[in-house]
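# nightly structure sweep
# worker-07 picked up a monomer target from the shared queue
# config: single-sequence mode, recycle default, output format = structure tokens
# input follows
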Amino acid sequence: MKFVSKVTALLLLSASVTSTVTLHPRVEAANKKASDDYIIINKTYNKLAYYRDKKLVRVYSVATGRKQSYTPEGKFKIVQKLVNRPYYKGHIPGGDPRNPLGKRWLGISIPNKGKAAGWGSVYGIHGNNNPRTIGKYASSGCIRMFNSEIEKSLYPKVLLNTPVYITRSYKSFAALAKKIGYIKGKKFTALTLGQRGSMIKELQQNLQKHGYPIKLTKRYDVSTKKAVTAFQKKFYLNETGIVDAETYNLLRSSQTRPTIVTTQATFKGWADSHSFEAHDVLTGAPTVYQAQQSAFMNALQDDGTYYLSYIHHQNGQYFLQKVTAYSPFEKKLPF
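# output follows
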């Protein structure tokens, strides 16, 4: 009887575990075409943008490979949707809190070293069991998300066959979407030495507004090129002397030379009134100045709370942004 009781108890325990932890993943099928949706992952910022019907829906913070080569780059598709996928390598069942894949898996059509066997099961967008890694280069190649964001926000929206573009770039998500042909935009023709016309006159007028004493000749002459180069240097752009779209738009704005914000109050005030997702939906993505980014890479200690993601330019000022929660800003910032 004691043996039977022990067996019964084990069976009851097994049934209890099975009822709370899904041991086998549930595969979800898409119910409509995903041709108008797109996922863009930028490893430079560790951000994921989700587009639906040619419009940016939301931008999420993610974690990517510990080394650049770990997370492959290119154009792929979502080929799997799994709920409570087991972590086979660690023999951890799906849905278990210890599972490093979280409770949702969006498999990406990246082959396993060129073999079809790994299609959608090796690389994926998934949850995690260590939220402190989000925003960092921490994975073995997959794209990690906060559990709440993939479970409640991204996973329910994404359809099978949704295109995925993974890249490294300092361009905005809007620019990347245009680059891959997802969003069509007007092509800007660069202005360079020797050109003439009304756009050159407007260029020279804008240079004058920014304090460059050049003449309105309607011709892109040497003095105009020197002024453009000086402007680009001032705003940390590529000093080419050629007016590209970014230089042109910045010249047309009333923006003055950026200043570095290093006070806790200013930083906290801006951070409290903006979220990464809301801001990025409105503007496409932040403008990043590579030259300034490197100067502050060691400004903050990575203690799991203050993690330097990039420097964001807003209203003529630079803001050091974090990819983690805003709640710790009551602490004294170490700069």
